[in-house]
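Appendix B, record 7
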Amino acid sequence: MTRLLIVLALWILGIGTVVLGSVGSGAWWVIAVLATASAVVGTYDLLQRRHSILRNYPVLGHARFLLEKIRPEIQQYFIESSTDGMPFDRETRDLVYERAKGTVAEEPFGTERDVYASGYEFTTHSLRARTAPDTVPRVRLGGRACTRPYDIAMLNVSAMSFGSLSANAIEALNAGAAKGGFAHDTGEGAISPYHRRHGGDLIWEIASGYFGCRTEHGTFDPGLFAEKATSPQVKAISIKLSQGAKPGLGGVLPGAKVTPEIASTRGVPVGQTVISPPSHSAFDTPVELVDFIGTLRELSGGKPVGLKLCVGSRKEFLGICKAMIERGITADFVIVDGSEGGTGAGPVEFEDHMGMPLTEGLMLVHNALTGTGLRDQVKVGASGKIASGSDIVKRVIQGADFTMSARAMMFAVGCIQAQTCHTNRCPVGVATQDPARTRALDIPDKSERVYRFQKATVASAQQMVASMGLDSFSSLRPSMLNRRIDGQSTRTYADLYDWLMPGELLDAPPEGWLSDWIDADAHRF
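Structure tokens (predicted):
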């Protein structure tokens, strides 16, 4: 309403000064021209659908786009200083924006990164490079007990709940997923009407609050779960054990934010604060967790059921592996969430000092599953700072089969990293429940951007694989990813890290794993 009043005021000022200019001083004509021009620009901003920032901030919003044209020092200062502490650098953000808009993402004058800095990574290309295939790569989720497997894309929308994101943002993400044929993780906030409106494939995330399938006391309700999980749109179920933004910590949704719509979606009382416990009540041990996986698979009609976690203790994950072997029930997939990723709000101490980074967590899960002979049955997903084709390639080399992206997908629907998510005043309508701000996010336009970003990023990853002389992602090996150790030397991931052989933990555990393997208990976390 405020923005409408401002534009209306500019029109009144313009018309009024035209009248004054016609009967009085010529100076009024200068004001009339400026006011009328601003009114015209403001009216256009309100009516156009491409830029959310202009719809919410007519006239003034153009200052942001002006800064984008000032390269490089001034833009670097204003943009970087306004997003201090965010994990994506300007180069990566620009890459996402360009791909989402469908423009060529190329940079003149070479890389902005210091290629001789310690930690710099690069892949090994081949002089027998190939042309990337036209086929879209897929990974099958579904082990031996899964009767309704799902072929997931290489890049998908990671977990972001309705409530943390606006209804329009959820719709745009799902519409983009529907058009591109990739999956949309619901986040722990359950399946909302906005997840269903466009029919995109869903991964339903079940967390400790059991939103969407909970009793009035907050425990798991099998009947409600089965009713929703058997929907054709739901392709897989993900049991969230922990998340990268706040591993080992449950969430709190203040009562003021529990609107009738959110309450209906989550299955909670309107206006009452909702607390997600730090751990599940449906199971207490690895064996009980594995049995719960089997239960959800049966209730969903044989769909893939997996786990999502930010890795903490290697011993605990090995306990889950032992439980899967003991019970003869395996997860169909494990999504590893890196501590450096995540869009969910969490205490600073948790964000900075709790949980394992994605690279280490991913390699641990891959090795644990390989060493216990389960890797061929359990697919591994990587979630955390996935924004480019090179990110996909690196994560596959480190042990992933597919990837999930949250923040880059937010960029695709218009996020500008204003860092006001917690205030409910997101300037582009992405992370807010304010209807006046949400309306600025045009669903058809932003869904197309989500589609274009995902398609271009996967295509880039395919071309990188082809440039390495390979036919598919399955041919990637640790020896193909290099890390600079210092200014004079680099080593491959095959040299830097130990990689277990299939069944090695069962036959002859290596010394570095022996202690944790012995201590791992299928009946105790």
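Remarks on this record: The CA atoms of residues 390 and 464 lie 7 Å apart. Residues 2-82 form one domain.
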